Amino acid sequence: SKALYTYTGAYSNVIEQSRTSDIVNHIQKTGDMGCKVNRVHSISSKDKSKYALEFWKILGADSIPDTVGAGHPDEDETYESNILHTNMIYTLENDELAPYEKYWGTIPKVEMLKDTNIIVFDFGSEMYVWSGKNAVLDRKNLALKLAKEMWFEGYNYSDCNICPLNIASILGERAQESLPLKADKRPEWSLFAKITQHRETVLFREKFLDWPDFSRVIRVRSDENIREVSASIDIKPCDVVEMVKEKDKEPDLIVEKNTHLGRGDSYFDEESSRLFEYESLKIKGWRILENSYEELPEKSLGQFYDADSYIFRWDFRQTVKGRRLGGDPSKHLAVG
């Protein structure tokens, strides 16, 4: 049975998980890369379900393997830096493929995709022959022929520190070993594809640093989409009684053991006629980065950015006050 599978590692962050959902929804909706399925199975690193077994068998395993632990905290950054250096990008010059010096060993950018260009992207396990909508047909056929010849010659990453086709076998808490940087044949699971402008697959688009996501762009409405409505306005006064009938409730944050914090300064419990007052002792904050975090300086504790995530620790002292039957404050206080 055909299905789409998403794999979520134990240490993947929220941004990566959200992006995975976006990609799966796009593939399912558009049939990208010829994939037409109705079922999506989400597999986690600890999943032992039958769908997890199906997933691993597709990848060639007889059973569900044990999850490999994460590597050194700096491993992700080191890997990403080195894997970019393996990107080989060519343009068609005269009758041969020549390195695109400006983008060789870097992450591709949309600006390089001109409508008359023909570019070959070699990512190791994936090779794409991209052509602009106004590229000459004979030139496109020549680039495709040369790219296929290069594809069947295998790969050579002798000038790089790693090889993108086998580096995954030593990442994380795996045994370190010397891996070959070249071979005369690429793995059977490698992908060779021809792509034309405006018909790029999601797998290709994800290779770019700045590929625009128009599904998230707020567009200006065109004149033809604006409906004509009557300009007459019927103004009626608001009912003041209805406006003041129900007052908004004060916000009340409840933490462990049913501790009511109110707005962080005080909270009155009507049921027990007790007043809880809070005094801030210390506040610390951290900004969450992709694979780590950094402590915020004191002057930045009240500054927030909509693209960032934060963790705060608030140390406070709670004082509980009550009242006597006559209404006077009680002499018995509880401080904690």
UniProtKB/TrEMBL annotation:
A GO cellular component entry from the record: actin cytoskeleton
Domain of life: Eukaryota
One GO biological process term: actin polymerization or depolymerization
Name the UniProt record assigns to this protein: Supervillin-like
Organism: Diabrotica virgifera virgifera (western corn rootworm)
A molecular function (GO) term: phosphatidylinositol-4,5-bisphosphate binding
